Amino acid sequence: MTTHAACPRCAFDTVRTLAASPVAGVWLVRQCERCLYTWRTTEPVRRTTREAYPEEFRMAPADIENAIEVPTVPPLRQP
Question: What are the two backbone dihedrals, phi and then psi, of residue 32, each rounded to the nearest 5 degrees?
Fold first, then answer.
């Protein structure tokens, strides 16, 4: 499900709901469609709202475009 709410990290206006708590209405896991920041709605305000998100961790579109590629997780070692 996609909603229109600002991402705390990059202020993109579209986030989607990835998961909901087994008990209805307790929490949701949301993810920004631009920067992929993911959070649970029960986290502190500094993690869930743009206004309270620490400025040193905020991202602009240029930051995202120029970010280095995140390496893939290697396969598990076999015993």
Answer: -70, 135
